Structure formats: structure tokens, C-alpha cells
UniProtKB/TrEMBL annotation:
Cofactor: NAD(+)
Similarity comment text for this entry: Belongs to the glycosyl hydrolase 4 family.
Keyword Secreted: no
Site positions per UniProt: Increases basicity of active site Tyr: 109
Gene Ontology biological process terms from the UniProt entry: carbohydrate metabolic process
Swiss-Prot/TrEMBL keywords: Cobalt, Glycosidase, Hydrolase, Iron, Manganese, Metal-binding, NAD, Nickel
PROSITE patterns with a match to the protein in the record: GLYCOSYL_HYDROL_F4
Molecular function via GO: hydrolase activity, hydrolyzing O-glycosyl compounds; metal ion binding; oxidoreductase activity, acting on the CH-OH group of donors, NAD or NADP as acceptor
Protein name: Maltose-6-phosphate glucosidase
Domain Glycosyl hydrolase family 4 C-terminal: 195-416
Amino acid sequence: MKSSSITIAGGGSTFTPGIVIMLLDNLDKFPIRQIKFYDNDGDRQEVIGKACEILLKERAPQIKFSYTTDPEEAFTDIDFVMAHIRVGKYAMRELDEKIPLRYKVLGQETCGPGGIAYGMRSIGGILEIIDFMEKYSPNAWMLNYSNPAAIVAEATRRLRPDSRVLNICDMPVGIEELMARIAGLNSRKEMDVRYYGLNHFGWWNSIRDKQGNDLMPKIKEHVAKYGYTFDMGHHQHVDASWNDTFHKAKDVFALDPDTLPNTYLKYYLFQDYVVEHSDIEFSRANEVMEGREKTVFKAAQDIIDKGTAKDCNFHPDEHASYIVDLARAIAFNTKERMLLIVENEGAIENFDSTGMVEIPCLVGSEGYEKLSMGKIPQFQKGLMEQQVSVEKLVVDAWITGSYQKLWQAMTLSKTVPSASIAKKILDDLIEANKEYWPELN
Ligand SMILES: NC(=O)c1ccc[n+]([C@@H]2O[C@H](COP(=O)([O-])OP(=O)(O)OC[C@H]3O[C@@H](n4cnc5c(N)ncnc54)[C@H](O)[C@@H]3O)[C@@H](O)[C@H]2O)c1
Ligand SMILES: O=P(O)(O)OC[C@H]1O[C@H](O[C@H]2[C@H](O)[C@@H](O)[C@@H](O)O[C@@H]2CO)[C@H](O)[C@@H](O)[C@@H]1O
Ligand SMILES: [Mn+2]
């Protein structure tokens, strides 16, 4: 069986250890001969790198391992780049979340003004990694789950149209796992779904088991009462803010009981609720810095101090196994059905053909084939037209350096009440992002 060489871009990410262990757990399905980490913050990456070096030596000594900040070393002789970079790190995420809140507009990692700000930072970082990959390993594939995936995907469509990049998100995966349990199944893999939308902005309109039985009624009954909250009965800790998001899906569902919604729609449909439930002194970035970041880096330091990863506090990120499914689909032409963020080109019949939509695709060694989702209802179409225009205007602004386009993007976001508030938020974000955004005129 073919054995792959992988570079994890964003080696210093809080998700890296969980993904490495998950990769080790799946070696029978997806053999690996080499893992490299790449990050542009050598100090941050070193902690995770040193700990993973110890862990890999103990658990999979046959896999060659290294970590580096040198692009040539990182991207030479590889088959896949798994990219999860966060340009500006949590310090900038905190500002993305808190600046809009000054004006009573929601602050979120990928939605609204915060998502726009993050997009303006991410585009350059992602393009740079694609270029490194193509320079040193021209046949490699980049599996990108760096956010904001919608804006990143539109930028790659426009600026690197021929590159081997697949953009994917784990939110539908996470929700489908909950749906499967709600329906009395053991895994989302026992379901066939139809889903359409943009990234962090979509709906399921069919969920069936492998015998073709319709699971929507049972799942809808649960969601109408409890949203997606469901006790999975395992050790994975869910932060309070995520529980609230899963619960709020109940109200999002009420607005269109014909479909089942992605949790992120709460930010566009219940903006006032989100603002009322936000704390400008302590946003999600603070929660993550106090929680996941501290836990992961402490676990890494413990491994380094003890010189062993036995009984360590790194845990497999089981739900990230969708990344293995994706890599496997390309390496072994499995034709697995997966949700990807791809150019529409008629897959959603009555929607912008150049929009980057999230829909089921069959993935194989030549890339993906899109499944047709037919016509979508007016409500979803209206919301999507507005949001896709925001995403396109952000990429226009990044390419041309246009203040005007970015102001239009901000104004058009359903999360922002007026052009004047959009301008105030934009001006504060420009000041905060001087180091990262192209200069706007
Ligand atoms: N698509 C999905 O479903 C999904 C799920 C979870 C996380 N994510 C994304 O994964 C990313 C990582 O999240 P995290 O919370 O672990 O963040 P993190 O800050 O812990 O890690 C990101 C790493 O990227 C590095 N980095 C930043 N800019 C870089 C560049 N230009 N080149 C190389 N490395 C760079 C940072 O130094 C940091 O070590 C984020 O983009 C997040 O939004 C996506
Ligand atoms: O606020 P964060 O940093 O914890 O998460 C932001 C990411 O949220 C989504 O991923 C979730 C996943 O869907 C959920 O089920 C949970 O178990 O973990 C994941 C990561 O926390 C989303 O899809 C990502 O794009 C976000 O970056
Ligand atoms: Mn996502």
C-alpha cells in the first residue's frame, strides 16, 4: 500500500497533536512514511514539535519526523499539505471578536466583521503556502481547513485556479455525528446526506440511512426541542459557548422546518441574541486561550520535561478523521462522498455559478466530482446571494487594495446594521490589522 509524506502547515496549532495521534490511529487505512511540521513561528511550533517528536519515536518510530520554519525543507518530497494556519494567532482573533462588539455588532471568528478581518489576513498566508508546495512538490495536494474557509476558497478560486487545493470544514462533520446518534445510528458514515450552502452557512435537505429510510423526521423532532444538544456520553469536553450554539440551532430550525441548519446560521439570523450573550471583556478567543491553548501547551511541556509521552495528556482528535478520509480518497481513489467547498458551476442550479459553495462531492485521485443539488428555496437563495457577495467583495478588496470594496463588504454583511457602523468598525479593524492587511486606498 502506498505510504504518504505529509506536511502539517501551522505545526504550532492547538489542533496539531490531536491530528497527529488521529493519523497514527488510522495508519492501517492511510499509511504514512513521513510527517513534517511547518510554521512561521518557530518558538511556538518548537514546543509542539519536540513533544510530538518524543511521541512519534515511541509510538511510530518508522515514520520520519521533523519540524522546521524553512519552506524548502518543509515542502520538499511531500504528497499532502494539511493546512491549519491562523494568521495573527489568538491575539488577532480576540480583536476580531471585540472590535465589532464596541458597536454592538457580533464578534466571531469566521462570521461578520471578525470573519472579514480574519479573511483579509489569511489570504496572503494561504497563497504563500500553496506557492511553496507547488515550488518544492508540484504534484502534492493541499487539504485546507484554515479559516475563514469561505473567503480563503474564493481567493484560491480567483488567484490560484489551477492549484491542487481542497477546502473543507469540520462543522458539518461534527453536526452529522450528533445527527447520527439522534437517529440511533453509531456513525455519520451510516448516513447519506444532501447539503447545500456556503461554508458555515448551509442546510441539510435530505438525510437517509443506507437502506434509504428517511431520518429527517426523527432528527427534526429532536432539533425542534433541543437543537443539536445530545449527550455523546464520551470524555470529549464541550465548552459552554459551544453548547449554547448547539442549543440555539432549535431557533434557527424553527425559521425553516423543511431543512436542518448549520449551527453558524445563528450569527446571521439571531444577531441581537448573540450580541446580548457576548462579553466584550471575555470572548471566545479568551475562552480558547484559557482552555485549549493552555491545556495543549502544558501537555506538550510535560512530555518534554518527562522525556516520554506515556500517559500524556494529548488526545486523538477523532472527529478530524475526515482529513484522513480526504487524503485517502486522493491517494487510493476511494470516491468517498464528502462535503467540500467548491465552485458552484451549476451544481446549485439557481445560484451564482462562480460562488464557492459547500456541497457533497465524490473524491478520487483526480480531485472531486460535484453532485447536483438542484434548485434551492428562495429563503436560502436570498441569504446566500447576500453572503457570497460579502465574500467576493472581501477578495476584491484584498486584490485591488480597495477601501470602498471592503466598506461595501462590511455593509452588506447581514450582521451589520448600517453603512455608518460598518465604516466605524472597518476603520478600527484597519488600525488593528496594519501588520497583516494590504494597504487600502
Ligand atoms: N475548517 C475547519 O473546520 C476548522 C476546524 C478547526 C480549526 N480550524 C482552523 O485551524 C486553524 C488553526 O486553529 P488553532 O485554533 O489551532 O490556531 P493556533 O493559533 O493554535 O495555530 C495556528 C498556527 O498557525 C501558525 N501560522 C500563522 N500564520 C502562518 C503562516 N503564514 N505560515 C505558517 N504558519 C502560520 C501560527 O504560528 C500557529 O502556530 C485556524 O485557521 C482555525 O480557524 C478550521
Ligand atoms: O472556537 P473554536 O476555536 O473552538 O472552534 C472554532 C472552529 O469551530 C468549528 O469546528 C469545531 C467543530 O465543528 C466542533 O464540533 C468541535 O468539536 O470542535 C471543532 C473545533 O473547535 C468550525 O468548523 C471551525 O471552522 C472553527 O475554526
Ligand atoms: Mn469550519
